[in-house]
Design a protein that fits this description.
Order of helices and strands: HEEEHEHH
Structural class: alpha+beta
Largest sheet: 4 strands, mixed
Strand content: 5-15%
Distance between the termini: 30 Å
Helix content: 25-40%
Radius of gyration: 15 Å
Number of strands: 4
CATH class: Alpha Beta
Number of domains: 1
CATH superfamily: VSR Endonuclease
Number of helices: 4
Strand order of the largest sheet: 1-2-3-4
Shape: globular
CATH architecture: 3-Layer(aba) Sandwich
Amino acid sequence: MAAIKGKDTRPEIAVRRFLYSQGLRFRVNNRRLPGSPDIVLPRYRTVIFVDGCFWHGHEGCRHSRLPESNREYWLHKITLNRARDYRVDVELRQMGWIVMHIWECEIDETALQILYQRIVGTPGIGEGYASTSDNDGGSSLAAEPPEAYGLPY
């Protein structure tokens, strides 16, 4: 587990390269903000988290299956990660930030274009639990609402 990277992962770098190529400038892993967001765009008051499917419990994704050994430990760990993700989202929103999430398995040209449009497009379009489709229960570009976590928030 010590070999698993927490920052500068391939999915994060892919998102950063795309945003940079579109002319956006940003900070990475800002430790002054709750949750140390992967990408911080101060000009747009937006933060982006590039969530790993396994570590953040992307439901229905083939990358998020729990290991057979020590299953209860992993279930508890991922549940706590998701609860922390939700708390961090709430804190950031209360501070006035727009919070976006993108799953590592959904990073493709279309998702990146949508992400870019939500950042620079119509004011407010990137807010809340935005998705690449119309509330289909999927979670591209956003975390699920708290009821999806099974949490009482």
